[in-house]
Amino acid sequence: MSVSSVASASKIQMDYMKLLVTQLQNQNPLEPMDNQEMASQLTQFSQLEQLESMSSSFSEVLDTTQRNYATSLIGKDVSFLAETEPGVTGIVDATVNEVHKNTDGQIVLTAGEFILTLNGIISVKS
Known about the structure:
Blueprint: H1 3-26, H2 35-72, E1 77-85, E2 88-101, E3 107-111, E4 114-117, E5 121-125
Helix pairs in contact: 1-2
């Protein structure tokens, strides 16, 4: 959501500006484009850009918060669902000994011989 969505907002805005310039160059001089409509459209694109910037900032804050929470779990016992035997799933208790990001950028925990996500944690014990 971060860099790509801001880039997409910028691309949309640039495409709009090209379209606007083309419209202005080719408009009928006897029926010019309405100034209020043009100002309204520019305002909407400015608001879109600001919203996407806020979304990007919020995403960064959320990522930092999740990393801090995951790191705080190191050395703590967590419960989670895992496959204990082939075809058998049950609740497992293990101590978190490592936190890292996987290739998808998702925060994962290593607890004993298991790798799990923050969403997979059922409970945390000191």
